Hints:
Blueprint: E1 4-5, H1 16-22, H2 38-58, E2 65-68, H3 71-82, E3 88-92, H4 97-107, E4 112-116, H5 126-132, E5 137-143, H6 155-165, E6 168-172, H7 184-187, E7 191-195, E8 206-210, H8 225-228, H9 236-252, H10 257-272, E9 278-280, E10 295-300, H11 305-314, E11 317-318, H12 334-338, H13 343-347, E12 349-353, H14 360-380
Parallel strand pairs: 1-11, 3-4, 3-5, 5-6, 6-7
Antiparallel strand pairs: 2-8, 7-8, 9-10, 10-12
Amino acid sequence: MRRVYMDANATTPLLPEVMEAMRPYWMEHFGNASSIHLHGQEARKAVDRARETMAEFFNCHDAEVVFNSGGTEGDNTAIFGLLHPGDHFITTSIEHSAILEASRRMLHRGMETTFVPPLPNGLIDPNDILRAIRPQTRLISVMLANNETGVIQPVEQIGKIAAETGVFFHIDAVQGAGKIPIDVRRIGCHLLSISAHKMHGPKGVGAMFVRRGTPVESLLVGGSHERRRRAGTENVAGIVGLARAAELAMHSLEDGTIDRLSGLRYKLESELLKISGTGVNGSDDGKYIPRVANTSNIWFDQLEGEALVIALDLKGVAVSGGSACHSGATEPSHVLMAMGLDKARARASLRFSLLKTVTEADVEYVLSVVPEAVERLRALAPVEAGTLG
């Protein structure tokens, strides 16, 4: 059976170039980057080169790059490393669970959080962020691109608000990295988190931009690794893989890859919307809403999205009902609910997220499978739209 993977926002496969870049650092060049002998020096040089690459990726100084285990650690570091009892934190109700759960834990430590809701189209209104600021506000955290809808948030405008009010600003850029350019100077953020495995790099490694002078405390203490910003022996192979993935991502932003991806996403989306009782989450009646090129979140009325995920998987198509971090959850997507969808429509929504390596044949195959699966499921359990609990 042909298999087509359209769940890139959950994770992506290593590109061959990334695998080849990593290979020597598992075998021949296995040294600890903190050792002073030749083996350690080889590892240190690899980490330093990777740091230079990531500085180019973020448009920052080398010293402002901190390697870590991924997006969750980066998000947690921004919150736990900056906030203290009595501080006020502003984020949004559509953030990743790494932000939402961390903020809930901070509530028990004497810090209050304001969750700013999105507009029905999935965008955060910067004026709502401004109105939420108090004298005690210390940190704002807003994602660059939503992992479920792909909607790109107005982070530059929010960065200006943060600068004018003297509030620290963190961005979860996990879903935007590699899909849109990142320029931390232009955005004006103090911290930014990414994860390698969302951009064809290895799992378990990521990086943060930490602006010079930002008084963030390390989550992990021990040795003096990462300029005392993150203790623990560096994952040299993973760091090398992240940097190679970042290099390839930067090239893809310039060589037409993203435009090609956007065109294939448009073809997939426009054809699926010909099915009756469908629509896009993250749109606004024809008004342009910025989205990353690979993501389409579509509702299919009169069915359960989970049933459609299973039906498509049996036909060789991998999609998801939302964030992989909530796989198996009985509640509908918190993102879609925050956008104002009722439970029925939120549960009837699927996320199609395309790999950069997707082909037109892949899209054609998905288009040949989805309409039939939708029709069959609706025929098996016909209900009035909006009545699913």
